[in-house]
Design a protein that fits this description.
Shape: elongated
Structural class: alpha/beta
Strand content: 15-25%
Largest sheet: 8 strands, mixed
Strand order of the largest sheet: 1-2-4-3-5-16-6-15
Order of helices and strands: HHEEEHEHHEEEEEHHEEEHEEHEHEH
Number of helices: 11
Radius of gyration: 23 Å
């Protein structure tokens, strides 16, 4: 076994290959639950490099296993594979060929980084134990996601992991800068679907209606008080109305209006309070207009909580790889959500961030693109982490 551990330059000879894989995946995006071609591409590469690949875990998920030496320890590293229902507007030569589908969150890059680590680990085998590389579907699903399905499919019973690690790119921070936070790091996310039911009428006779559009518009404003007047100002919570639809014609008052909310929180008690107040506010507010409401409250991903020891270990690996000046720790909590949180409920571990470039378009944006300079940075990071976690 080599005495030294992986450096970024060790992957220079395969950078073009890895970038090519990344761009191919980018050009052929697949939405949650549809990642058939992506999974097949990943599996073929991994099998070619000597991994034992198990397919169709939790849907289109797969796990690639490689053993070296006689060590009994094991580690899991995860990448997500799905794209988003967004019409790409980058104009890049490798832009999505599938209208309305786009890798606008960088899962193409996450997959390429982990494939790069897989290639390097297969070439050097500079570790003593078992590595399980987890390629997960349906991270963007919001609920009943790929992580949940893989766990229900016996992920950790079939592929034991002493710890598990994951990474996400972070636009707005310089490329190759790593960010860490122990404890609660990313928010719980719930979705609320509301149907405001009124009484339709001719636009010229509003007095004969119970206008659901006026009711819903007022409700949007009232919902802004849920956080500002119910949640402790020292706590973090977000209530965003992201969708509001009503009617089809200017001269018709519709029968109903629908809206959807995204609700974020970091503590169980705050999460419970938000649901209680939203439900109560919706009903009392619409009744004041003579309307009624149906509320569907969907619990999404839980708070992502990093364990202390594994986060410190992950931070040390980054410092060894890129130096202390490219480490931000602790990094502030993030109101976005991640179904990696389910894995961390099962095993200790760390979910970290890597900068995707200052001034770059944000995630879930039609102009976003993963920074290819991160492909070998991330691959070297994962390689070194496995080598150090499973060192003899």
């Amino acid at each position: 076994m080599r005495a030294e551990f992986c450096r970024i330059g060790d992957l220079d000879d395969v950078k073009d290959e890895l970038v090519g894989i990344r761009r191919h995946i980018h050009q052929h995006p697949e939405l949650s639950y549809e990642e058939v071609d992506t999974a097949a591409l990943v599996a073929a590469r991994l099998e070619g490099w000597g991994y034992a690949v198990t397919r169709n875990i939790g849907g289109n998920g797969l796990v690639a296993t490689l053993r070296a030496g006689s060590g009994t320890r094991s580690v899991g590293v995860r990448a997500d594979m799905d794209a988003l229902p967004i019409n790409e507007m980058t104009g890049l030569p490798y832009a999505s060929e599938r209208h309305g589908k786009m890798h606008a969150c960088g899962h193409d890059g996450h997959t390429a980084m982990l494939l790069g680590a897989a290639l390097q680990l297969s070439r050097t085998r500079n570790f003593d134990g078992t590595v399980n590389l987890i390629f997960q579907p349906a991270e963007e699903a919001g609920f009943n996601s790929g992580a949940e399905q893989m766990i229900r499919d016996g992920l950790f019973e079939r592929f034991p992991c002493d710890a598990i690690f994951g990474m996400h790119n972070h636009p707005g921070v310089e490329t190759g800068t790593f960010m860490f936070r122990s404890g609660p790091f990313m928010a719980a996310c719930d979705t609320v679907k509301i149907k405001v039911i009124g009484k339709g009428s001719h636009a010229a006779r509003p007095h004969l209606s119970v206008d659901p559009l006026v009711t819903a518009s007022s409700l949007v404003m009232a919902l802004q008080t849920v956080v500002s007047r119910n949640v402790d100002p020292m706590e973090t919570a977000v209530v965003t109305v992201g969708s509001l639809h009503a009617g089809h014609a200017a001269n018709v008052i519709p029968e109903h209006a629908t809206m959807e909310l995204s609700v974020r929180s970091f503590k169980t008690e705050v999460r419970e309070l938000l649901e209680q107040r939203i439900r109560a506010l919706v009903q009392s507010h619409v009744e004041g207009y003579g309307a009624s409401a149906e509320v569907e409250y969907i619990r999404g991903y839980p708070v992502l909580v990093n364990s202390d020891a594994e986060t410190e270990f992950a931070r040390q690996i980054a410092e060894e790889l890129v130096g202390a000046d490219k480490i931000i720790a602790p990094f502030g909590p993030i109101a976005g959500s991640e179904d990696f949180a389910y894995f961390l409920q099962q095993r200790p571990g760390c979910f970290l961030r890597v900068g995707n470039g200052a001034g770059k378009p944000m995630l879930h944006n039609a102009h976003y693109d993963f920074n290819d300079d991160n492909v070998t940075v991330g691959a070297a990071y994962w390689t070194r982490l496995v080598e150090r976690f499973l060192q003899a």
